[in-house]
């Protein structure tokens, strides 16, 4: 299980939940065997490598604020983990 920490000094405009999801995705790419590159992930998703870079950096595709608000209201934390093998 991967839980990223939140650096309050970051000024990228992303919510803590949004930032942690993106950090978890980058971590999963780095620890995947073999290592997943942005290009190989783009191929799997059927999008361009620059689009993957934009998603991972937060320049595109923010997590809906309603989900973030719901998690906060319910005092819940979103945990991202690798799926179990079927």
Q: Features of this protein?
A:
86 residues, single chain, mainly alpha, 49% helix, 0% strand, disordered N terminus
Main sheet makeup:
none
The count of strands amounts to 0
Listing every helix as H and every strand as E from the N terminus to the C terminus, the arrangement reads HHHH
Q: What is the CA-based Rg, rounded? A: 14 Å
Shape: globular
Quick check: average pLDDT?
78
Low-confidence stretches: 1-10
End-to-end CA span: 18 Å
Task: Report the β-strand fraction as a percent range.
Answer: under 5%
Output the structural class. mainly alpha
Q: Tell me the quaternary state.
A: single chain
Q: Number of helix segments?
A: 4
Structure, explained:
- The longest helix has 16 residues, at 16-31.
- 49% of the residues lie in helices and 0% in strands.
- Helix 2 (38-45) packs across helix 3 (49-57).
- The protein contains 4 helices and no strands.
Q: What's the structural blueprint in terms of helices and strands?
A:
Layout: H1 16-31, H2 38-45, H3 49-57, H4 65-73
Helix pairs in contact: 2-3
Short description:
Helix content is 49%, strand content 0%. The protein is mainly α. The longest helix is centred in the first third of the chain and has 16 residues, at 16-31.
